[in-house]
Amino acid sequence: MSTLEVKVWRGRADGAYRDYRVPRHDAQTVLDVVTHIQRRIDPTLAYRFACRVGMCGSCAMTVNGKPRWTCRTHVAKVARGDRLEIGPLANLPVVRDLVTDMSIFFDKSMRAKGRFEPTATRTDDFARVQPASAARRAADAAIECIGCGVCYAACEVVAWNPDYLGPAALNRAWTLVNDVRDGARRERLSAVAGDAGCHACHTHETCTERCPKKLSPTAAIAGLKRETVWAALRGEL
Amino acid sequence: MSARGETRLWIAQRTSAMVLAICVAVHLATMTIAVHGGLSAADILGRTRGSATWAAFYGIFVLAVSIHAPLGLRTVASEWCGWRGAGPDAACAMIAVALLALGLLAVAAVTL
Hints:
The complex is a heterodimer of chains A (237) and B (112). Chain A has 237 residues and is an alpha+beta fold. Chain A is built from ten helices and seven strands. Chain A has two domains: 3-100, Ubiquitin-like (UB roll) (Roll), CATH 3.10.20.30; 103-233, Orthogonal Bundle (Fumarate Reductase Iron-sulfur Protein, Chain B, domain 2). Helices cover 36% and strands 14% of the residues of chain A. In chain A, helix 4 runs antiparallel to helix 7 (167-177) and helix 8 (185-192) crosses helix 10 (217-233). The radius of gyration of chain A is 20 Å and the shape is elongated. In chain B, 88% of the residues lie in helices and 0% in strands. Chain B contains four helices and no strands. In chain B, helix 1 (3-36) packs across helix 3. The A-B interface holds A 157, 160-161, 190-191, 193-195, 197, 199, 225, 228-229, 231-233, 237 and B 1-8, 10-11, 75, 78-80, 84.
């Protein structure tokens, strides 16, 4: 059995990487490695996970320089030889070790009006949305976000402009802009326009490249750019 | 700046970029043809002086540059230097005026 040489970030933002040696196994995930360190080597290691099957979005970390969901990332796919470097997500404050404070990430989703605003009441009939309609298909394309923060950590524009809403918040806004039942389209387009919103995106597509759910926040942001332009030309912003 | 204002600036930058894509291509083709055709400076001026077409073309070119370049510099100032707000906006507006004035003077010099 070979051994993995693992560097793991310890401490807060002014911390440093510490070396660990972890037995290597077949089909071993990066989360398995972190869990081994915490349970067998150093119980003070702080990290976050929940479902372990790629549903909850809790376990994202920086692995060999790139943000990834660690529960669905096999060591064999990302290790350089027998070496791994595991750190907290970028663009977020480090609480301790591999745990980041994701408050700003979720706050930005609210700033982008990422909450559904119903137009119907419980006494109304169900809304009938045709599955093949263009709006429904556009909403479908963006709807499976698990809020892992990988796109946010990968985004260069977030690093340059901390006010930028980021790919996940804009992706969520695009889902709701295409939701025909929603009643806050105009407010939402105003919330996502501007130099902290969709118009700041440089279309590097790093978010799309890194998204573990294979979504395209870049396409969602392009959609928001189009809709905000039409809204501006109609005087609705 | 308001969402409406920022969106309008974005529209201005993207629209000016489309204009520049055409203008730069035409300009480069014109320069290449002029150089390979062996035209002297006097020959070129003979064709441009009094030409409303060349005056309009390069006038539009200058206008697009004076819109596009300051907006790009504004973004660079914001993202790379952290300069945001009224100061950089005013500086970029002055750059726009300067580019427009210098460009139109150059157009006037070869077309009037």
